[in-house]
Amino acid sequence: xxxxxxxxxxxxxxxxxxxxxxxxxxxxxxxxxxxxxxxxxxxxxxxxxxxxxxxxxxxxxxxxxxxxxxxxxxxxxxxxxxxxxxxxxxxxxxxxxxxxxxxxxxxxxxxxxxxxxxxxxxxxxxxxxxxxxxxxxxxxxxxxxxxxxxx
Length: 151
Prior knowledge:
This protein has a domain at 14-113: Double Stranded RNA Binding Domain (2-Layer Sandwich). 41% of the residues lie in helices and 17% in strands. It has 5 helices and 5 strands; from the N terminus they run αβββαβαβαα. The strands form 2 sheets. The protein has a 3-stranded antiparallel sheet with strand order 3-4-5. The protein has a two-stranded antiparallel ribbon with strand order 1-2.
């Protein structure tokens, strides 16, 4: 009797989920390395036995999700490895969420293109305010001087 065909393997849960960095860019969770370890600091026996500290790291050079221009921008701003650590909560799950959120924020900040400044001429009112401030400062400094012998 022939064996029944086996169904295709279920897709890995991590490969299905993605981190939304910007409106245009999402990164699969498979590209993010998540490591857990014991948290430092207070917490008593609980902290001594649970691995609740989470470190999420993203390798910029190895990521196929980034374009060359995005890769260059992130490399110049934060380097080839972006890391976010969370050990704020007792729960590993909550710390994992926090670490991924922080990683997303760091990548989004690194990818942000600064708005270019358009040169403008000062307005008449701003020029007048500047001159008034100069006159006020000159008067104040003049009043600080020693009185002259002639007066």
